[in-house]
Amino acid sequence: MFHENLARIDAASDELDKLVASGNAQRFDTLNALLEYVESGEWMYDADRLAFRELLKAMQISVAQDGSLPAIKLHKRIGEDMDALNEIEHMYEKEISQIFGRFEPWSTGAASQ
Question: Considering the domain boundaries, does residue 109 fall inside one?
Fold first, then answer.
């Protein structure tokens, strides 16, 4: 599954590169629609949004190759989304640490007694 996911991310990255390089006037509308989905998809929890991290990184790299004003604005928006994902991940890590911090460390000496 891991390698399949990497292949999907690579394919999506290639498609993003093609879209940005196409010069199509609608390309930024398409990318904005994708960001809207990631940012506010109603069925998603914050943890679900973390699955889009690699796609957003690929999008950010693709958009950085275009020096137009819409691309610059989109690059900034993607950066803000990446910051939000980092904050979500930090909150989950903190929560998991609190949950598992309640358990005493496993001692090999106690298990053998």
Answer: no
